[in-house]
Structures are given as C-alpha cells and as structure tokens.
Amino acid sequence: MSDLAPIHTATAARPAISAWPDVDDLYRRLDALVKQPMRPIRPAGMAQVMRYFDERCQGSRRLAERAQAVIPGGVQHNLAFNHPFPLAIADAHGAHMTDVDGNRYIDFLQAGGPTLLGSNHPAVRQRVNQVLDECGPVTGLLHEYEVKLAELVCRSMPAVEMVRLLGSGTEAVMGAVRLARAYTKKKWIIKIGGAYHGWSDQLVYGMRLPNTGRMEAVGIPRGATAHTQECLPNDLEALRRKLQLNRLRGGTAAVLLEPIGPESGTRPVHRDYNAQVRALCDEFGALLVFDEVVTGFRLGMGGAQAYFGVMPDLTVLGKCLTGGYPMAGAIGGRKDVMMLLVGGIGTTARRAFVGGTLSANPLSCVAGYHALLEAERLDAAGVAGRAGDRLCRGLAEIIERRGLPYVTYNVGSIVHLQTSGVLLLDTSSLWKLLRAKDEAKRRKHMMEEMGAAYTAHGLVTLAGSRIYTSLADTDEVIDDALNRFDDVFKLV
Predict the structure, then answer these.
(1) Catalytic residue among 291, 313, 389, 473
(2) Domains of the chain, residue spans
(3) d(C-alpha 131, C-alpha 369), whole Å
(4) Tens digits of residue pLDDT in 444-460
(5) Active site residue 148
(6) Is-catalytic flag, 273?
(7) pLDDT in tens, 208-221
(8) Which of the following is catalytic: 313, 319, 389, 473?
(9) For the domain 23-120+379-489, what is the CATH code?
(10) 122-377 classified as CATH 3.40.640.10
(11) 3-state SS of 354-412?
(12) Would you call 291 a catalytic residue per the annotation?
C-alpha cells in the first residue's frame, strides 16, 4: 500500500450546480400542480404498462413472491419497492442495470444517490478486491485506509476538522444529536418539517409531510420524541419563535436540516436560507447540523456547505461517502465539539458514547477513499450536474410541448420530476393536514403508477419522482432517456 496521502489546505472542487432554482416560482408551479385534478396515465396506457411486467418480468415476479413469504412486505428497504412488484437486478454497471429477466434499464436510482461515479466503478472495485485479498473486510483494529478516508474528508469539506466514521446515515444523525446535546448541555432539537433524517426513535417525526409530528411514530414511546420539534422550511419567524420558547425551557441543542431543503430539495429552500439559520443558531447558542447524506460530494467535494458558504458545526455524511459500498456514515465537525466522541474503554473524560464494531472497516474505507479520489479527479459531481441540467431542460421541453402540469427542476445531479405532487400538499393548518392525509393516498398511487410506467419504458427512478444522474450519464444516455420519458407522457 502507498504512504498516507498528505493533507492539503481545505479547498472545495467547483460546485456542481449551474444555478440555484427560482424558489418562489417553483412553489407557485407546485401549488398549481396540487390544486388541479391529477393527470395520471390513462387506463389503456396502464394496461400496456402492466403487460410489460406480466410478459417480460416473470423472474422478478417469482423472486418477489418468494420474498413475500420470508420478508415483511417483500422488500428490505423502501428503495426496492416498485409497482406492481420489486425488480430483481442481476447486473449493474455505469449508467445501466439489467434485471434477472435480461431487461436493461437506464439507472437513475443509482442506489438512492451514493454511486456518483455510476454503478460498480472498476477503479474502486479493483482497490476493494486488493484489500479483501490482503486482510478481509474487517479486523476490529486500525487500518491505513481509515486514516486516509478521514484525511480526505477533512481536506475536502470546509467545516469538517475531525471525522468519526459510522455505519449509516441513521447512525450518524443519532450520534450528531447526542453529541450536540452533550456539548451544549441542552435538550431541544429542531428539525425542518418534511425532512428524512433516518429512522431513529427521536427523528421519526414530521417526516415527508411537514406538521405531521408523530404520524409515523408507531411503536415509539412519546418520550423519545418529547424534545423533537419541527418547523416549515423557509419559515424563519417560526424557527425564531421556537428558539425563543426553548430558551425559557433550557435551550436548543441543535437545528438539523437538509441544506437544499427537505427530501433532497423536494421542498426547496431559498438561496440564503442556510445563512439565516446559521445566524439564528449563533444568536441562541444552538449548534447547526447539516445533514449532507445526499449532498455530501454530490454537490462537489465540499458539499452543500462549500456551495452556500455556510459552516455548520456538525455535518452528517452517508451514501456517497463510500461510493455505494456498505457501512456509509460519518459525523464531521469542529474539533472542540468532535473531541467529545473520544473513544476507549474506561475513559473518565466526559463524552458522548457512540459505538459500532463494523464502523470504519477496511472494505468501506478503501472503497470510500478511492471513490472520492476518482470523483475529485474526474470532477464527477460537475459532470453529473451537467447531465442533470441537460435532463431537466429536456423534461421541461416535453412537459411544455405536451401541455402537462408537471414540474421539473434540478439541483445539479439531483433532478425532481413532480407529476402527482404528493409530498407538496399543504399541511400548514390542522384542517389542511387532515385533508392532505386523504389526498396523499390518491396522489401516492398515481406516483407509483408513473414509476411503473417509467420502468416499463426502461427507466429506473426513485419513487417515480426523483432522479440521480452520475458520471456515467453521457449526452447519449440522457437523450435516450428523454425519448423514453416522452413515450411515457404520451400515455397521460
């Protein structure tokens, strides 16, 4: 193995976002989308879509039926859900994947975002195989690549001085919340409503739709979420009021947010929103935590914090950190805060206890180090971002030409295609929330049918409404995809 990579002055690669979207215009268009009747696939078109699955996906169907017998709901995680049944994938390389029946798809899921280089990148796979041959996937002891990956993250992300590697984004958020409370000696956590920060007890709160509080907190004691709060994105006055109230009740430990808006920008925030939240956190003595599970490295090597020029106190990482290999999670941040995570048995220093036997294993760390080096060398975020721009422009042209109410926009390589608007329903009052719950069921079904139609036309997306582009998405791939989307929209 080579010597440890030198540490350089913290700099970020050029951002991968060509322009920040006009957020006010976006909300006007999204509001218009959810206020008018839905425009789903016509019944005849859906019959055509279902024939695809009946005739060409029998291998996937058989595996899905076997899965139903031994796996609750037949899937291990939500990404695998596909209407009418999950696809079973046999091969994934670059911009494409192939299912067990031999059907080939353009892969806009990219494992939910982490494979910025495209699936199964050969340069990373070669390095992983080398480490597996030398020492296996885990030793329980320190490994060279553990240090190299931490060094690379610290020199890439301007607000990260130290890193603690963990097993997932969920674990990293759990650790960041605990760390914030330990450092500030305060207990309240404010998240931005609608955001997903993993499935830990204290953060299954206000997920997907803002103002829904404990709606999905089945099996979670009320005490677990007793000090979790939410406020609507872009509502700085509501955030200020919560901070003021909490100051009378012991104070706010942290404000936790996705820097491009909840659900990877499904509810986008204004360009200066993060800076304004930073100022409020400084005023009230709360830590600012950026959840960069999706944006970390997808918006450039410096993440969203480099793009916005806003320094969070703590940064949560996942997904892209190991380029699609397992055990992808980390907390990064200021040294004075991070030192409360000092490990070791029997330590007498005051600390926030965080564990994980398989965290920072050699397999994950070698994958992460070389995936990020390749991303830096090839400007993967920039290339993927320009592919996202090309795809978004093409989708907008198709939507306008066909007179559809759908809304598309992108933040670099994160492309949103809203056809049903299920996550954009108005939940700003109790009455609107009650109406939204019923409306959400119908719009969710439409979104699932749109996803099935994309799949039947050779396109795999995230829940039929989000698309991740990658380094592998050439102009030819994007143009092919646009022709396929146009064929789907003919069925509306």
Answers:
(1) 291
(2) 23-120+379-489, 122-377
(3) 12
(4) 999 999 999 999 999 99
(5) no
(6) no
(7) 889 999 999 999 99
(8) 319
(9) 3.90.1150.10
(10) yes
(11) CCCCCCCCHHHHHHHHHHHHHHHHHCHHHHHHHHHHHHHHHHHHHHHHCCCCCEEEEEC
(12) yes
